[in-house]
Amino acid sequence: MTVEELKALKSDKVVDARGTACPGPLLAAKKAIGDIQAGQVMEILSADEGTKSDIPKWAKKQSFEYLGSIDEDGMFRLFLKK
Predict the structure, then answer these.
(1) Which pLDDT band holds residue 34 (cuts at 50, 70, 90)?
(2) pTM of the full predicted structure?
(3) Which residues does the UniProt record annotate as the domain UPF0033 (predicted)?
(4) Catalytic annotation, residues
(5) Residue 72: pLDDT band by 50, 70, 90 thresholds?
(6) How far apart are CA 13 and CA 19, in angstroms?
(7) pLDDT in tens, 4-31
(8) What's the rounded Cα separation, in Å, for the pair 59 and 66?
(9) Distance between CA atoms of residues 16 and 70, nearest Å
């Protein structure tokens, strides 16, 4: 998805993991994914650079659809569809 499409996307669940270092954002995402239904979108907020590679790899392993990320004001917004 393009950055504009991601910005317009409505997230069903937002996980704010900006205060944690690797692997904190990934662990927070793993915990939160159970809170959404199949087809819903989860957004992960992180300031850890490693999250940009960890989340797509995990999403692929779990057969979730990684939609993309936005770099914004020193943080990353990553989107995936369950």
Answers:
(1) very high
(2) 0.93
(3) 15-39
(4) 22
(5) very high
(6) 18
(7) 999 999 999 999 999 998 899 999 999 9
(8) 6
(9) 14
- DSSP designation for 73: T
CA distances from 41 to 9, 15, 74 (A): 9, 11, 22
Q: At what angle do helices 51-61 and 24-32 cross, to 10 degrees?
A: 40
Q: Name the strand (E) or helix (H) holding 75.
A: strand 75-81
HEC readout, 1-67: CCHHHHHHCCCCEEEECCCCCCCHHHHHHHHHHHHCCCCCEEEEEECCCCHHHHHHHHHHHCCCEEE
Separation CA 79–CA 57 (nearest Å) = 13
CA–CA dist 29, 55 (Å, integer): 8
